[in-house]
Write a structure and sequence with these properties.
4-stranded antiparallel β-sheet; single chain; disordered N terminus; globular; 195 residues; mainly beta; Neuraminidase
Length: 195
């Protein structure tokens, strides 16, 4: 009988501890995200910028997170690209231009509904740039990707001045290989992978 009471007491203690823990959980414990494709960058100070296409409304969302999920917290989210400018189920690629401990630009690439390689970016001096009328964006060049392709990557190098941006995708003009849009500071050009 004593053993049974002891087991019951242990069980009751465990139950009350777990119940207290569960009661302390709130809806703020997790951040609901309903997305398809995503990309992210980590800033020199550890902050994270995560970009994804919302599967409900098609917008590309920017999430600001203070660091890695284990130590950081969600701070805010905003619509970066309205759904009218994004292909449904578009891949999302992101690159960061930094100078030492300072981030200068964050570039987000995706495909438009017409499969045009498109871009929005944040610049430390100009703020948000993007959309069909952005003269400095790759969007303005009209490079068309293969319809439905999920292949897209982006990278930036601060080793050159100005920085070099590279965006890989499958071009409608060369559908059997990878093409790369490159901007070394004098505008965008495109070339296909060759030997």
């Amino acid at each position: 009988m004593m053993l049974t009471i002891s087991k019951f007491s242990l069980f009751l203690s465990l139950f009350l501890t777990l119940r207290a823990f569960a009661n302390n959980l709130t809806t703020d414990a997790i951040v609901p995200v309903s997305g398809t494709n995503m990309g992210s960058v980590q800033l020199p100070n550890g902050d994270t910028r995560l970009y994804y296409q919302d599967k409900n409304d098609g917008n590309i969302i920017e999430m600001v997170i203070s660091n890695a999920f284990t130590v950081g917290v969600f701070e805010e989210s905003v619509v970066l690209v309205p759904s009218a400018q994004v292909r449904s189920n578009s891949p999302v690629a992101v690159s960061l231009v930094a100078d030492g401990d300072t981030f200068i630009q964050v570039h987000t690439f995706f495909f438009s509904p017409e499969n045009v390689l498109s871009q929005y970016y944040w610049d430390d001096k100009l703020g948000i740039q993007g959309g069909p009328n952005c003269l400095t964006c790759v969007t303005n060049k009209g490079f068309v990707g293969v319809a439905g392709s999920q292949m897209l990557y982006a990278m930036a190098s601060s080793a050159t001045s100005p920085p070099t941006l590279r965006v890989g995708f499958v071009s409608a003009g060369a559908p059997n290989t990878i093409s790369e849009a490159v901007n070394t500071g004098s505008g965008w050009s495109v070339a296909s992978l060759s030997t």
